[in-house]
Specification:
The protein is an alpha/beta fold. It has two domains: 86 residues, Rossmann fold (3-Layer(aba) Sandwich), CATH 3.40.50.10860; 123 residues, NAD(P)-binding Rossmann-like Domain (Rossmann fold). Helix content is 42%, strand content 16%. The protein has ten helices and eleven strands. The strands form three sheets. The protein has a six-stranded parallel beta sheet. Strands 3-2-4 form a three-stranded parallel beta sheet, with helices on both faces. Helix 6 crosses helix 10. The longest helix has 23 residues. The relative contact order is 0.17.
Length: 288
């Protein structure tokens, strides 16, 4: 029976450390990390995410700014706001909650954000830095997943990693992070031939496809670390991309849904924002 990787507990440990560093930063440098979140429209899931981010910022002592814009906001209006935030010295991180309404080009929005404030890690410059192995801001969910894998004590170097899903938000950056940690990595997707057989080769299996309970117990190598990124609602209940009870019986460690990856995404958003603030101060560590 695989160990359950408790994302809530691990995220809470990160938030506690971040809050301590914020307190010391305020005391020693008079600086408070600032995060601006922009929400366009009234997508229910996006509203829930934004409220969670507001609450997390308050908890760790950040300066939090939320811009809620109507659904008919034009692209030019949004880009003007982003430009203002780019030049606001109180703001260290900018996040535009996706998806945006159809009249707005999400690529134009992402590239308009100053890459030094792109705490989502989606700007092409930050993606390029990630693949090149040079410093930059890393997408929050993959960064959180890496911390969850490390929490199991498994040595990543030399292991076979399989990432199921090739999105720009999770799949591709996750593969880059595992590669940087010296794993041997395969990215699988809907066109992959004999996906179950490939999944069984993985010592570390990350699943981010958005299909309820697609990965079964027979797909998993005994003792593997399995990270389930899926969030699928069905008949009022939340399911992952992994058939949890089947896979837990085989895996060495597994994340639950909910309570696995989700809390780490917000914790890494806070960590990215704090990292920007520390970089601006010319420090890497704040003695707590």
């Amino acid at each position: 029976m695989g160990e359950i990787i408790d994302g809530r507990r691990i995220a809470a440990e990160f938030r506690t450390k971040i809050a301590q560093e914020v307190h010391e930063m305020q005391k020693k440098a008079g600086c408070t990390p600032g995060l601006a979140v922009v929400l366009v429209g009234e997508d229910p899931a996006s509203q829930v995410y934004v409220r969670s981010k507001e609450k997390a910022c308050l908890e760790v002592g950040f300066h939090s700014l939320v811009h809620r814009l109507p659904a008919d906001t034009s692209q030019d209006q949004l880009l003007k706001l982003i430009d203002e935030l780019n030049h606001d010295a109180r703001i260290h991180g900018i996040l535009v909650q996706l998806p945006v309404p159809p009249q707005i080009d999400s690529t134009a929005v992402i590239t308009a954000i100053d890459p030094r404030k792109d705490v989502d890690g989606f700007h092409p410059i930050n993606i390029g830095n990630l693949w090149a192995g040079t410093p930059g801001l890393v997408p929050c969910t993959p960064r959180g997943i890496l911390e969850l894998i490390r929490s199991t004590g498994v040595e990543i170097a030399g292991k076979q990693g399989v990432v199921v899903g090739r999105s720009n938000i999770v799949g591709k950056p996750m593969a880059a992070l595992l590669l940087a940690a010296n794993a041997t990595v395969t990215i699988a997707h809907s066109k992959t031939v004999d996906l179950p057989d490939l999944a069984r080769s993985a010592d570390i299996l990350v699943v981010a496809v958005g299909r309820r309970e697609m990965v079964r117990g027979s797909w998993v190598k005994p003792g593997a670390v399995v990270i389930d990124v899926g969030m699928n609602r069905y008949q009022g209940k939340l399911y992952g991309d992994v058939a949890f009870s089947e896979v837990q019986a085989v895996a060495g460690a597994i994340t639950p849904v909910p309570g696995g990856v989700g809390p780490m995404t917000i914790a890494m958003l806070l960590q990215n924002t704090l990292d920007v603030a520390k970089t601006n101060l010319g420090v890497t560590e704040i003695d707590a």
